[in-house]
Amino acid sequence: MARSGATAVFAEDAFLIEDAALVLGGAGAGLSLAALAEVRGHRIGGRALSGFHTPRQQVAAEALALLQQLISAPAEEHGGIEIQRLLQGEVAFGETLTVRGGAR
């Protein structure tokens, strides 16, 4: 990583970031680590992981409402059902973001 000049590692989810941190070990010191997904409860070396908090109950409620719509509507009406829903998440700054040079 040091030779590439990289200062941050982003991954799809917290588990991949945890794996990357494990592989990097001490070589990852000074890197920012962040997940592009829910990070609640995830820690790297005792530090809260940076990423996002998603409204899980709202996601579940929206998914069930959509499923009910799809089940109850005739197949020819499925094209008129809005299947994408935009829900508001929160940025979780955590403790795994560092400024260039390794300081927090």
Task: Give an overview of the whole structure.
The protein has 104 residues and is an alpha/beta fold. It contains 2 helices and 6 strands, in the order E-H-E-E-E-E-H-E. The protein has helices at residues 14-24, 56-72; strands spanning 8-11, 32-38, 43-44, 47-48, 50-53, 90-92. A 4-stranded mixed beta sheet has the order 1-2-5-6, with helices on one face. It has a two-stranded antiparallel ribbon with strand order 3-4. Helix 1 links the parallel strand 1 (8-11) and strand 2. The model has no long low-confidence stretch (mean pLDDT 88).
Summarize the structure.
The chain is an alpha/beta fold and 104 residues long. 27% of the residues lie in helices and 21% in strands.
Structural class designation: alpha/beta
Q: N-to-C terminal Cα separation, in Å?
A: 19 Å
Order of helices and strands: EHEEEEHE
Q: Outline, from the CA principal axes?
A: elongated
Average pLDDT score: 88
Largest β-sheet summary: 4 strands, mixed
* Helix residue percentage: 25-40%
Number of helices: 2
Radius of gyration: 19 Å
Query: What is the number of strand segments?
Result: 6
Strand order of the largest sheet: 1-2-5-6
Strand content: 15-25%
Would you identify the regions where 5 or more consecutive residues have pLDDT less than 50? none
